[in-house]
Amino acid sequence: MILNKGNLTALFVALKSTFNKAFDASPSMWDQVATLVPSTTRENSYAWLDRFPRLREWVGDKVVKSLTQHNYTLPNKSFEATVEVDRDDLEDDQLGIYAPQAQEAGFSAKQWPDELVFEALNEAFSKKCYDGQPFVSEKHPNGTDKAGKVILVSNQGTAPLSAESLDKAKASYGKGRTVLRNMKDTEGRPLNVRPTLLVVPPALEDTANALMTAERLDDGKTNIYKGTAKVLVVPWLTDDDAWFLMDTSRAIKPLIFQQRKKPVFVSQQDMNNPDVFMRKKLKFGAEARGSAGFGLWQMIHGSTGKG
Prior knowledge:
alpha/beta
């Protein structure tokens, strides 16, 4: 290949096309559990998450909910994937080795939100959300009672997910459904949470599918939970015992994917670049900016599965 501006431009246009095709064809699952929040600044604040807009009878002045003292922010982080192109490979017409790398860069770029979102879910039992408690916790403050005492609500369990018997299914999955169904706002009004998605690691795939599809449980009793939720198997979940039940039907899902700059193909193809002169290297790859974090804890029940 003769190395001139026209040939290099054509090469990187082809690599960009390969990248984009791979990106468009690659699967992703983050949007099943997370709300996309476009970002235009260095970080976003989510102090507004504790305010549920609910209609009430208008008597006297309107009741305006103000921001709480909590300040939950997500700073945007920069991400990249870069491939070096050796000038000798171009001169020797060894171009075929770079198309698969462009495909993998496209696949990786599409998977980027998945990795961020489910990395956040892995930290659900330890990392704090907007109310100052871990996202999945036994002590979420949720308004006050008539005596002015703070009401603490749990969205955390410990039961292993089980299809062995009806009793064990009720103690694990059934309890999670009940917890979510009983969720209320800070004024004590039902939130009408509807569990729709059972999220599990690969180790619990068979158990989750049995609970959602089998006519009968392992003890022979009728499976009363058949078809009550969709199963999502997530390879990024690192704990083989932990599982999560979510309501993903609302405008604000349990998790947040904050996108400052969507993945884009970038390249360095100037033959006058010092890196080309000193090392015979050109480059292409992908860049993106964003973050992921916690949305509404009221929309998720998590169990450590440790018993």
